UniProtKB/TrEMBL annotation:
Keywords: Membrane, Transmembrane, Transmembrane helix. InterPro entries: AA-permease/SLC12A_dom, APC_superfamily. The lineage of its organism: Bacteria, Bacillati, Actinomycetota, Actinomycetes, Kitasatosporales. The keyword 4Fe-4S does not apply. It is a multi-pass membrane protein. It is found in: Membrane. Its main location: membrane. GO terms for cellular component: membrane. PANTHER family: AMINO ACID PERMEASE (PTHR42770:SF16), AMINO ACID TRANSPORTER-RELATED (PTHR42770). Residues 500-512 have a biased composition (Pro residues). One of its GO terms (biological process) is transmembrane transport. Residues 32-473 form the Amino acid permease/ SLC12A domain. Signal peptide: none annotated. This is Amino acid transporter. It comes from Streptomyces lydicus.
Amino acid sequence: MPSAVQQDPGPARMRRALGVKDGVAIAASSTAATTSIGIGMGSLAAYAGRQTPALLLLAFLPILGIALSYARLNRTEPNCGSGYTWVGRSIGPWSGFLTGWVVLVGNVIFMAYTGAVTGSVVLQFLNKLGLYSVWGLRLDPSSTGVSTAVGLVALVAVTVTAITGVRAATRLQMWLLIFEYAVLLVFCGYALIIGDQPFSLSWLNPFDIGSPQALAQGMVIAVFIYWGWDAAFSVNEETRSASDAARGGLIALVAMLGLFLVGALAFQRVMSNGELIHNGPQALTFLGGRLAPEPWASLPLAALMCSAFASLQSSVIPTARGALAMARDRTLGPVWQRVHPRYGSPAAGTLVVMAMAALLAVLAVGIPKLNEMILTAVNSIGLTVALYYGLTALACAVRFRDSLRKGPVRALRDVLVPAASALTLFGLGCYLVRYYATLSDHFEASPDNGWFMLLLPALFVLLGLATAAWAKWVRRSPYFTTGRGTDGDAIALPMDGSGPPLPTPAPTPTEG
């Protein structure tokens, strides 16, 4: 009796279901303006003083150049690996792998620390509701251990939503954004009007910042605060059009600039510099209490809680997709490239990311104060963000160098602005490395110890190079032979090295 032959449907693939609004939601949630304003302005004020608005404007310039570089590269070659793929093809596979690696490691660390921040915000909100202990356990927002435990629950929850569908996750993020931005704009707008701290034009003058060291350190923190808009490019294989991801990322970045400036000016109209630094991660809660009675004073805290959840979720999404792109080239293991047949998401990789972040969060409990935990993370990740942003912008300048002969507009857009942005971030990074190296005369596990601040970025890079060597000589990844990543429509790489051969990579494009 003849039997029907069932054709293998092939490997599961991610679904193209996202548009510009989804890209904006992912980028804006990842940047987390409310969280950055709520917990980051105190850190900026510690270095820039009352010139925090000027510092945010100054840091925006190279970041805008980086964003334009991403958009230009994405138009030519949309790939969920983004910088990993673009840098690998334009500069070289070792630089490309390092770009993907620091994004992966940096995001995992950020998620670990953001989980603790989310837990702290939840505990603050419970305290506002009059709940100070459960079963004899004190719900202390400043306790790293308790905050981390609550944050782990939040991390599991956002991981489940990231696995079951990125479209549903972006819809949730959009509603969270609408609520938190409405609250943020109302309170900050009111603070601008009634604040008793006199406004000064010097707030917009970066030359009034105390020292070159303070300017450089503040710039790194500001770059870190802007970090996240590039998450929109991690879903460019799931958008209906390649340009949707670029538009989403750029719209979110410009919106972040406006929100950051409004927030910084509002804080300075209500608080002195000492108050802003002293309140640190609870500055937004302090602002709400200063401007309104309860229950309205708790609205900024509710907005901060929504922002922290959305930021945590939007960090899971790009991390797993960047690792997926690397796994397609066998630079990472096959577990990262497994796409869920029902949900169309890299489910296995998402779970691994969550597990690594959770483990790191538990280990980080050894740092006693949440404020020190946040500062250590910012100092460590800021340098690596500057590194991979700079490499990606440099890749744009290298790839489109022929535009130098095609008129001033093309030369400026494709080469000069990306190159200038890359050199700015590289110069900033080198200056800070030198400063940190001479800051302390001994090593100590403290966020103000220069050698400790250098240790984590150095470990990221060294571990990345070791992993790259393993991928090249043990996994025998084709990425290190061709320098070209596998595109989203390519046949998935077999897990055991058998099966159909890899598709022949297309020639490196020079124009889109």
